[in-house]
């Protein structure tokens, strides 16, 4: 009982509500969809045509959510039914075409459904990591504005924009976590393409839609590393919060320090708390059970793999 009260108080403080109000309004059984994507060409362990890295699943589960895999090559009608059953969407990192892939097609369907839902006061959050960040920028601007950067395997501190520490995403982070994010090399970057601050500023659609929370530089190009939408519960990070506790390849950019892991938890905690504001649910317990990630077994790919484990789907 004490633990339940304590957890409730933490969530209430995070959301800016009283514990009683929090108890009335939150969905304590959130289910978040993670969008699968086409397998990598050099994936010799592949057991299907698409995959989800297990670290994204663990990332959400660590903060109190369950996960449903969203498989590619499905109809808009199927995606619509699934949208009405889940409480949020995570667009993961990867390496597919963010304009022509099945990943991008499915992301567009869910993005448009989320816009309509939120406009109708049906709170539905989206989180994009790395490729997911890039995908959201394309969906909002209707064009690919990405620029090559030298950020393939490097850990960086975040440069916070003025006032961004009071943003929805960061305002409830502990001060020590914000300080570590700003001063230590704890955000893992594994991307060749970035949304430059210059291209963002020159595009009215992006500038009106997203608020820049943090930036980084590769020494030459300044790019956006964290952003959130003004009117919608959409969040995007170019860095990888899920890697520190759940990926173990020995490679530059991988950080397993306590501050990095603590920052990981608060990013997951934030997004799960956003999903708790949504009331979607499956029509029946049987359909819910059939959809959950527990029906699939992750494949161990070895310690030298960029993803320690993958879930595969036909």
Automatic annotation (TrEMBL):
Enzyme class: hydrolase
Subcellular compartments: Secreted, Extracellular space
Keyword annotations: Hydrolase, Secreted, Signal
Enzyme Commission no: 3.4.19.9
Gene3D superfamilies: 3.40.50.880
Recorded GO CC terms: extracellular region; vacuole
The reaction(s) this protein catalyses: (6S)-5,6,7,8-tetrahydrofolyl-(gamma-L-Glu)(n) + (n-1) H2O = (6S)-5,6,7,8-tetrahydrofolate + (n-1) L-glutamate
Residues spanning the membrane: none
Protein name, UniProt field: folate gamma-glutamyl hydrolase
Signal peptide: 1-20
Gene Ontology molecular functions: gamma-glutamyl-peptidase activity
Active site residues according to the UniProt entry: 130 (nucleophile), 240, 240 (proton donor)
GO biological process: tetrahydrofolylpolyglutamate metabolic process
Protein family: Belongs to the peptidase C26 family.
């Amino acid at each position: 009982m004490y633990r339940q009260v304590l957890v409730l108080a933490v969530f209430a403080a995070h959301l800016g509500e009283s514990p009683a109000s929090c108890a009335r309004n939150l969905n304590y059984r959130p289910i978040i969809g993670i969008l699968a994507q086409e397998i990598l060409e050099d994936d010799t362990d592949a057991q299907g045509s698409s995959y989800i890295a297990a670290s994204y699943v663990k990332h959400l589960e660590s903060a109190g959510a369950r996960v449903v895999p969203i498989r590619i090559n499905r109809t808009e009608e199927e995606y619509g039914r699934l949208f009405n059953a889940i409480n949020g969407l995570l667009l993961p990192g990867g390496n597919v075409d963010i304009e022509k892939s099945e990943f991008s097609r499915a992301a567009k369907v869910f993005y448009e459904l989320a816009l309509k839902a939120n406009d109708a006061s049906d709170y539905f959050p989206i989180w994009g990591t790395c490729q997911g960040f890039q995908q959201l920028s394309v969906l909002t601007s209707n064009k690919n504005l990405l620029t090559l950067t030298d950020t393939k395997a490097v850990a960086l501190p975040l440069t916070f924009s003025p006032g961004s520490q009071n943003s929805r995403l960061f305002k409830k982070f502990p001060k020590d976590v914000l300080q570590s994010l700003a001063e230590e090399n704890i955000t893992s970057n594994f991307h060749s393409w970035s949304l430059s601050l210059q291209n963002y500023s020159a595009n009215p659609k992006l500038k009106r839609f997203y608020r820049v929370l943090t930036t980084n530089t590769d020494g030459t190009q300044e790019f956006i590393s964290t952003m959130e939408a003004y009117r919608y519960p959409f969040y995007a990070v170019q860095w990888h919060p899920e890697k520190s506790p759940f990926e173990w390849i020995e490679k530059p950019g991988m950080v397993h320090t306590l501050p990095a892991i603590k920052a990981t938890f608060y990013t997951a905690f934030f997004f799960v708390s956003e999903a708790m504001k949504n009331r979607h649910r499956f029509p029946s317990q049987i359909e819910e059970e059939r959809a959950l990630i527990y029906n699939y077994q992750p494949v161990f790919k070895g310690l030298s793999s960029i993803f320690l484990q993958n879930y595969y789907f036909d």
